[in-house]
Fold this protein.
Amino acid sequence: MKIYNTLSKKKEEFIPIEEGKVRMYVCGPTVYNLIHIGNARPMIVFDTVRRYMEHKGYEVNYVSNFTDVDDKIIKKAIEEGVDAGVISKRYIAECKKDMAAMNVKPATTHPLATNEICGMLDMIQTLVDKGYAYRAADGTVYYRTRKFQEYGKLSHKNLDDLQGGNRSLLVSGEDQKEDALDFVLWKPKKEGEPYWESPWCDGRPGWHIECSVMSRRYLGDEIDIHAGGEDLIFPHHENEIAQSEAANGKTFARYWMHNAFLNIDNRKMSKSAGNFFTVRDISEKYDLQVLRFFMLSAHYRSPLNFSGELMEAAKNGYERIVTSVGNLNYLLNNASSVTMSGEEKELLKGMDGLAAKFDEAMDDDFNTADAVSVIFELVKFANTHAEEKSSAAFVGALKEKITELADICGLIVEKEEAILDGDIERLIEERQAARKAKNFARADEIRNELLNKGIVLEDTREGVKWKRA
Ligand code: AMP
Ligand code: ZN
């Protein structure tokens, strides 16, 4: 399995630190609003990387944080007149709902920055003790960037070019810095903002330190993969390397993976530019499986332009797979013979060849665009060879392979059979009878069974009404 490593700018063979295990950290969102579909790109991409590694037999420890203390969260809290924690909790819950709807698996651990302050104080102290950090007069603690000899190795930037060419690196408190390149590890509190006590001043952490600390706490000093969108390469990931490697004295991450941007009209989709659609917006028009399919139809390192036309194409593509699996289910339920004929066995060898092509595409730096084409080939193969007289074993094998490969991509392609109006009415009658007999457990069971099928019951004075959710 080869992974393109931003650090070496090359595809490298993946060799885990510990055999059979993967330690992976993905920088998560700052939670002050609903996530947009640009934020969804790394979630879908790296969830697919994780799923493929699990398919290959690795045990993946997948950590992804929520940044729950930040200027934007505080600003929103002040606007609403509530605590910052109210805002972050609300949007973490919403983000988890969106992730589930996109079939993004929950991480092994989703740490929150505000729960990890102790670890941050600890790492900052180590950096101060080792001479990599210093306290300025107002209590701010800065990282002494020039002391870290390898600074710039991830973003392939030269320190002197940085200083000369990019004055915007001078952030608040710049006059107290020893050097324009130094960045904040800890900053003093401001009136009305959340803060923690520290040896330097009452205040809160800078953004970069949280990922170094959470990665170390949940995955150890050295990890296999660190990932995020390409805007994080500099300065965020460069600063994480400087912090972690100076504090721990070890290589931080072996493979650095970065997804390219999701654009709209060839500009990066972002909250600040205002050119965004939330995942929630998209869910009003499309099944979010279509969004997932759309994201995977491009390689993760290629920019992807969002458009209604491409979403329609994704919808058609996704539905082609769903329809094919639906047909296979029909044939499976109506097959006249069980065991496979010699001819069918021969045909299945072709299917195995296609499955090998899928792995080949994914082994080549997770080429999901090619992997999805292989699923299409398989669908075409199934549509051509599965027929009324096929055996259940043959049809079952085709269906299993398509759903297995789709599942590695996190695509749900087998739809629950739609429940018919007659069945709903029958279950409602049974529920009424159960209630009359005071069998409330059965009544609740029926309500939940219907809910799982998307049917919502409403008890009104005129009787029970139902609607499809
Ligand atoms: P943020 O909440 O801005 O820190 O972003 C969370 C994650 O989404 C990071 O990995 C970003 O790199 C990523 N991200 C933000 N905008 C985009 C975009 N338009 N395309 C791809 N990834 C993005
Ligand atoms: Zn991070």
User: Anything to note?
Assistant: Confidence is low (pLDDT under 50) at residues 165-170. The pocket of adenosine monophosphate (ligand 1) is lined by residues 27, 29-30, 38-39, 41-42, 228-229, 231-232, 259, 261-262, 268-270 (CB under 6 Å).
